[in-house]
Amino acid sequence: MGAAHSASEEVRELEGKTGFSSDQIEQLHRRFKQLSGDQPTIRKENFNNVPDLELNPIRSKIVRAFFDNRNLRKGPSGLADEINFEDFLTIMSYFRPIDTTMDEEQVELSRKEKLRFLFHMYDSDSDGRITLEEYRNVVEELLSGNPHIEKESARSIADGAMMEAASVCMGQMEPDQVYEGITFEDFLKIWQGIDIETKMHVRFLNMETMALCH
Amino acid sequence: MFLLLPFDSLIVNLLGISLTVLFTLLLVFIIVPAIFGVSFGIRKLYMKTLLKIFAWATLRMERGAKEKNHQLYKPYTNGIIAKDPTSLEEEIKEIRRSGSSKALDNTPEFELSDIFYFCRKGMETIMDDEVTKRFSAEELESWNLLSRTNYNFQYISLRLTVLWGLGVLIRYCFLLPLRIALAFTGISLLVVGTTVVGYLPNGRFKEFMSKHVHLMCYRICVRALTAIITYHDRENRPRNGGICVANHTSPIDVIILASDGYYAMVGQVHGGLMGVIQRAMVKACPHVWFERSEVKDRHLVHFIVSCILGTCINNTSVMMFKKGSFEIGATVYPVAIKYDPQFGDAFWNSSKYGMVTYLLRMMTSWAIVCSVWYLPPMTREADEDAVQFANRVKSAIARQGGLVDLLWDGGLKREKVKDTFKEEQQKLYSKMIVGNHKDRSRS
Fold first, then answer.
1. Count of H helices and E strands in chain B?
2. Cys-Cys crosslink for A130: which of A25, A122, B18, B368, Cβ 3.0 to 4.6 Å?
3. Which stretches of sequence are listed as region Disordered (chain A)?
4. Interface touch A203/B425, C-beta < 8 Å
């Protein structure tokens, strides 16, 4: 537990960068150490230690999101091999609840960031578009493991949803016009006016008397 | 050279005398009472003294903290996330409803938004996971002079450090060798005793001898750990032909229960020293030792009573018992065991410590204090199946011990989550979507 002077400075720096409070950072740091086995970095394998995560059908996409360079703001594509605590917090910060004290511009920015995180989850080849293949891939993963749904049904569901998205984004299409994929602007358009902020955040408990030993 | 000689013999003499004294003390105060099942009350006195010392130590720390105007670090064990108990269906319906700017009759079968739910759930489990939390040791509020449980190092004054140093000295140099000697005596007596009894012809005498050999050795082991046990409701003690079921925090549970009653045990085969002990015990009494994965042995025995084991879990929750123990139609005597972590943490995190390290930790703590509650017997009713009965027993035990009831099976720690659970989630989700799909095609 950091009682040294430099540690609290680090915490303050992280507070500024990621927007978490110092209590939350301390809690997340303990969690980070638990996941990494007291190492300074986490690799993909460390997420196998979270048994509850196994239940999640899109587990691999979530884990991948942690190492995605676009989410880590380290590059336009590719995956990192391991992440440190600051990277961990950066990813977690996408799920911070909307602060009531934020002004409209900040709310808009936060919302865009959250949607971008989601977009990256769909767009696995980092080409900036969600193609039909990528969409199908997500639907199949969500529906995988159920023996009653054949691949065909999963596909048709994906195709149907993709057509919906196309109609929203491009309006009426010519018969030979090909819809290449959903770009981020289209993605934003789909979500215009719909309140996603309340669904894309983790609710932290109010922690009392959690003073650190400074 | 010559000058050294008298000193030499003096030292040797002193050593000899102190060893003899030690052994006599050992014999008189510990082993003899163990054989006859009486107690001098030394351990209770010891416990009271320790409590007074701990209270003083915590007071000093709080005073130190107040001087510096800070608060002591009180670890928050209840998790950091407010998890909403809504189900998968409700949440997804809500998400879709909030997106109802689309045409009302044109409910899409699958929306990009569905991924929100799983995304958030995934993040929440990464941040704070119910099952993993259960597996780390409980954290204390007052300090018990063991450095392993202290998070407030900077508030220790000089006096406290001296006290702590003294504590270390006592624990490692006096208590530890004493306990090891006792344990050694106890175990070797057990092995030798049961082997000898095994050679006797089957009959009442053999049973009588076996019972007493077992009891005696367990009592010695109990003293080897300085386990201070309080038994409640002894009138409900398991009787012949019943099955004793208890919550399992550590291998010490077996010793604690077995020192108060004669049980035939059902348990997992271990290697090494435990294996030797197990094999010896089998000679005198019909215990059943099985491989964890094989469960067919369970209906073997003419059980006298058997202890049921599960995975070691932290003291605060009771995991689902292995279903197998409840399928034989006998009377079940539930027993709740609760450890007081103030004197020594009995929790064994098997992935972190091996057996020997664990035992050493136990033997260098102050004492193991626990309470054992014998609950009234239960039988399976006609309309319950094994699982429901198991849950009923489990909640009775949890209620008594003040432990938190948790539906998870402790086996999670070792194996990966069974695929059936994962499929359940996905089935539920896909049912929702395919349901919609079918409705549309019908209309």
1. 14, 8
2. A122
3. 1-20
4. no
